[in-house]
Design a protein that fits this description.
Layout: H1 5-14, H2 16-22, H3 27-44, H4 46-49, H5 53-68, H6 78-90, H7 94-104, H8 116-138, H9 147-164, H10 166-171, H11 179-184, H12 189-193, H13 197-220, H14 239-248, H15 253-258, H16 262-274
Helix pairs in contact: 1-3, 3-6, 3-8, 5-7, 7-8, 8-9, 9-13, 9-14, 13-14
């Protein structure tokens, strides 16, 4: 059994929702899931740790070189070593991590997604990939059965993440709502960043509806996924709370989602596991 204590400590400190979801996983799988989640935390926050894109790209390249090297340990980075152990133990495809890290380069720049198709491609290589990798911890061959669920859940949870992070991304001039969706909602990237509250709210509601559509799709497919493997998609099941908050108060999404109790989240996880 992989313990991954350093990874679990990071997840526990940085992501309470994932920490709660780990309680629904078999004890012998929690370490592996923690390592994957810690890797996601480490790489997704690179933008916040650098002042320019280049140092961020160098950091992501370090992860790419390490994983592609085939090493099993010895990186000098406890979280990286725990991830390498998980990759080796469960024979996880290193190419999936390569694609994930390539997609994360987008985070370092302020370029918007031109279309929803581009957004879905990004979500597919990041959040959907992570769900698939987590599913492989339960069964590498059986993970094929979660493919469509992972695809839609990755998009819906990415939308929810973008909505919750709006105060931070807008403050640094970054627009993560796809441009074609903004245009359809009658909003420009400049209006989204400025004080045009009415135009921004319309765009937020349209983006929310787009995310909810993907959320509904993956839930309709959940019965085809073996119950133990559903642990891999649990964190995505909370996206609905974000969509509810966005519809009620588009400019207070982050604070409203923070008000949701662990009990309500546990109930949502339990229902997802039950299907």
């Amino acid at each position: 059994m992989i313990e991954a204590r350093t990874s679990f400590a990071l997840v526990e400190d940085q992501d309470r929702d994932r920490t709660l979801s780990l309680l629904f996983a078999p004890p012998e799988k929690r370490g592996a899931l923690s390592a994957l989640y810690a890797f996601d935390i480490e790489t997704s926050r690179v933008r916040d740790m650098v002042s320019q894109p280049l140092p961020g790209e160098i950091r992501l390249q370090w992860w790419r070189d390490l994983i592609s090297s085939g090493a099993k340990s010895g990186s000098g980075h406890p979280i990286a070593d725990e991830l390498l152990e998980v990759i080796d133990r469960y024979d996880l495809p290193r190419s999936a991590f390569e694609r994930y890290l390539e997609a994360r380069i987008f985070d370092l720049y302020d370029d918007p997604f031109p279309t929803t198709g581009d957004f879905e491609a990004y979500a597919g290589e990041t959040r959907s990939t992570l769900i698939m990798l987590a599913a492989m911890v339960f069964s590498k061959r059986g993970a094929e059965r979660i493919g469509d669920v992972a695809g839609h859940a990755g998009v819906s949870s990415s939308v929810a993440s973008v909505l919750r992070s709006l105060p931070k991304t807008r403050s640094r001039g970054q627009v993560l709502v796809p441009v074609d969706l903004l245009t359809a909602a009658g909003c420009t990237t400049e209006e989204f960043l400025s004080g045009n509250q009415a135009a921004r709210q319309q765009a937020i509601l349209a983006f929310c509806a787009y995310g909810r559509d993907h959320d509904t799709r993956w839930r309709s497919l959940l019965k085809s996924v073996p119950k133990p493997m559903r642990c891999a998609v649990l964190p995505a099941s909370l996206a609905e709370f974000t969509f509810d908050a966005a519809e009620k108060a588009p400019d207070r999404i982050e604070s409203r989602t923070a008000e949701i109790s662990p009990l309500r989240k546990s109930w949502r996880y339990w229902r997802t596991m039950r299907g």
